[in-house]
């Protein structure tokens, strides 16, 4: 069962969240099997990204999609995870080249130091002319060590965007995608990824309460995060703290693709391109990269799509 737990530390300006994606994460991988599985390191990366995106979405309570992307110059050209306001999530990647077992983030995405991490907030009811908010940072962290973990990158990102100290622990395998987030609460004002910033630079790194809680969180191993339930993890880590917990939330795997959206994308290709594909293959098959769903269009479907007088989709329409 997928679950997300929010909690506060009484008397301290520190909040936390713990997410465990199980049923939904396994469904996500099973759906992907229809178009070919990702290499194990890529599956682990996508699991960590799905957990992280879910944590960040729950942290900011944003009405829309939070899209976490990492892209670079290694065999993994792009990895993306999306979490929506109802905490439904999905993830996929574009892989070109071999990804050896045990490959770390540096080898997959940042071979020549050109990797980037982007977080986009796309409002559900976007106003005309309104653009999604996006922040981009280099694919590196603040710690003085080689880049190996996605958590380093996201801690660095949140320190820059929210100006709040954050400690993040992520882990994933083929059964579980999980994450623990600890964050210092702002002293005053509101800070979030949408760009509302109140300068708190003088407070960064100065909270003894946060530093103590973050140190405890950092002792959590990947094996513990993947195998222990939420109650056990919180009890073992913070048994000396007064932890105020809230009712758990229920994330889930869900894909927003549909035949209507795929049809719109096909219309954006234009009649000439669609007819060319039909002539070569006899029909048009388009598969969703997130869930593996296959959509089929024959000559009749294409003819109806481009019949004069029918509503045609804009060229910018996209499956995603």
3D structure, described in words:
The protein is α+β, with helices and mostly antiparallel strands and 320 residues long. The protein has 2 domains: 3-253, 3-Layer(bab) Sandwich (Hsp33 domain), CATH 3.55.30; 259-305, CBS domain Like (Alpha-Beta Complex), CATH 3.90.1280.10. The protein is built from 10 helices and 13 strands. It has helices at 23-32, 40-60, 105-109, 150-162, 208-218, 222-227, 230-237, 259-269, 271-281, 299-305, and strands spanning 3-9, 14-21, 64-71, 76-84, 88-95, 116-123, 133-138, 166-172, 177-184, 243-245, 252-253, 284-287, 294-297. Strands 7-6-3-4-5-11 form a 6-stranded mixed beta sheet, with helices on one face. It is elongated, with a radius of gyration of 21 Å.
Secondary structure tally, helices: 10
Q: What is the strand tally?
A: 13
Question: Which architecture of the largest domain per CATH?
Answer: 3-Layer(bab) Sandwich
Structural class: alpha+beta
Largest beta-sheet characterization: 6 strands, mixed
* Rg on CA atoms, Å: 21 Å
What's the overall geometry?
A: elongated
Order of helices and strands: EEHHEEEHEEHEEHHHEEHHEEH
Mean of all residue-level pLDDT scores = 83
Domain module count: 2
**What distance separates the N and C termini?**
27 Å
Strand order of the largest sheet: 7-6-3-4-5-11
The CATH superfamily of the largest domain is known as Hsp33 domain
Strand content: 25-35%
């Amino acid at each position: 069962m997928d679950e997300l737990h929010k909690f506060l530390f009484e008397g301290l300006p520190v909040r936390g969240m713990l997410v465990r994606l199980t049923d939904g994460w396994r469904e996500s991988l099973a759906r992907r099997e229809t178009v070919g599985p990702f290499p194990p390191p890529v599956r682990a990366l996508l699991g960590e990204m799905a957990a992280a995106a879910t944590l960040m979405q729950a942290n900011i309570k944003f009405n829309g999609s939070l899209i976490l992307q990492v892209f670079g110059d290694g065999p993994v050209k792009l990895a993306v995870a999306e979490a929506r306001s109802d905490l439904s999530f999905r993830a996929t990647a574009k892989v070109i080249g071999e990804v050896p077992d045990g490959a770390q983030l540096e080898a997959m995405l940042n071979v020549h130091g050109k990797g980037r991490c982007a977080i986009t907030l796309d409002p559900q009811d976007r106003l005309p002319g309104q653009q999604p908010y996006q922040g981009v940072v280099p694919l590196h962290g603040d710690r003085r060590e080689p880049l190996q973990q996605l958590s380093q990158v996201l801690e660095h990102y949140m320190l820059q965007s929210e100006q709040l100290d954050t400690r993040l622990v992520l882990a994933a395998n083929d059964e579980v995608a999980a994450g623990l987030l600890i964050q210092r609460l702002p002293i005053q004002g509101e800070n979030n990824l949408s760009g509302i910033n109140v300068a708190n630079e003088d407070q960064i790194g100065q909270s003894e309460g946060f530093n103590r809680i973050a140190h405890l969180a950092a002792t959590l191993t990947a094996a513990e995060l993947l195998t222990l339930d939420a109650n056990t993890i919180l009890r073992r880590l913070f048994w000396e703290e007064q932890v105020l917990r809230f009712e758990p939330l229920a994330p889930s795997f869900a894909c927003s693709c549909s035949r209507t959206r795929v049809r719109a994308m096909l219309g954006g290709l234009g009649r000439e391109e669609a007819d060319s594909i039909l002539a070569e293959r006899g029909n048009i098959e388009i598969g969703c990269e997130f869930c593996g769903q296959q959509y089929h269009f024959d000559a009749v479907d294409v003819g109806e799509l481009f019949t004069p007088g029918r509503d045609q989709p804009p060229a910018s329409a996209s499956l995603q």
